[in-house]
UniProtKB/TrEMBL annotation:
InterPro entries hit by this protein: Acyl_CoA_acyltransferase (IPR016181), Acyltransferase_MbtK/IucB-like (IPR019432), GNAT_dom (IPR000182)
GO aspect biological process, one term: siderophore biosynthetic process
Pfam annotation, one family: Acetyltransf_8
Associated pathway: Siderophore biosynthesis; mycobactin biosynthesis
Residue ranges of every copy of the N-acetyltransferase domain listed in the record: 9-184
Top-level lineage group: Bacteria
Name assigned to this protein: Lysine N-acyltransferase MbtK
Keyword line: Acyltransferase, Antibiotic resistance, Transferase
Biological role: Acyltransferase required for the direct transfer of medium- to long-chain fatty acyl moieties from a carrier protein (MbtL) on to the epsilon-amino group of lysine residue in the mycobactin core.
GO MF annotation: an example: N-acyltransferase activity
Length: 184
């Protein structure tokens, strides 16, 4: 970033009115490479609709930078997705109260400006307030996605494990790095 002031992030739950924006972001090459998501209107509605309607325990959060849409963060508790917790458990301890984040910056003009680490840091800090039971944030990331795991490191998470997990994109190797930050 080129300014001396910290970016000002806000967020809110994704609504169905946000689906065209999510679709446009998912189609961006820098997002599509790592999210490997179907982008038809039906697929976006299928995959983000349950969360937008409150039918899923996770949160899909639209992130704004100074009032302008910047990206998406998905926040979930591992206890709400036991199959995912079980997949990760051979690599590292996954406490009952652990939270996971997945994230993207959708606006291509905002990539590579230091906003990813700042966005992740802001959402981790907000997680401690939003979920008083959350004891840690654990995030696995495919090892090939250097920009993502470097953003986690810059946001203050530390690598605690590495090993094989099913990649989101079948072209990727199974090797993942696992990052963690504990509640202060």
């Amino acid at each position: 970033m080129t300014t001396d002031t910290a970016p000002s992030f806000t967020w809110r739950r994704v609504t169905e009115e946000d689906f065209p924006l999510l679709r446009a972001w998912l189609e961006q090459p820098h997002v599509a490479r790592w999210w490997n998501h179907e982008t038809s209107p039906e697929a976006v509605r299928r995959d983000f609709g349950p969360s937008a309607r409150g039918e899923e325990p996770n949160e899909d959060l639209l992130v704004f930078l100074d009032g302008r849409p910047l990206g998406l963060v998905q926040r979930s508790r591992y206890r709400d997705y036991p199959e995912y917790r079980e997949e990760l458990a051979p690599l590292t301890e996954v406490p009952e109260n652990a939270v996971s984040l997945d994230y993207l910056i959708g606006d291509p003009g905002s990539v590579g400006r230091g906003l990813g680490p700042a966005m992740i840091r802001a959402l981790v800090e907000r997680t401690w307030t939003d979920d008083p039971e959350a004891g840690c944030v654990i995030i696995p990331v495919v090892a090939a996605n250097r920009a993502s795991w470097r953003a986690l490191e810059k946001a203050g998470l530390r690598r605690v494990a590495e090993g094989d997990l099913e990649p989101d994109n079948p072209i990727d190797d199974r090797l993942h790095y696992v990052y963690r930050v504990d509640r202060p």
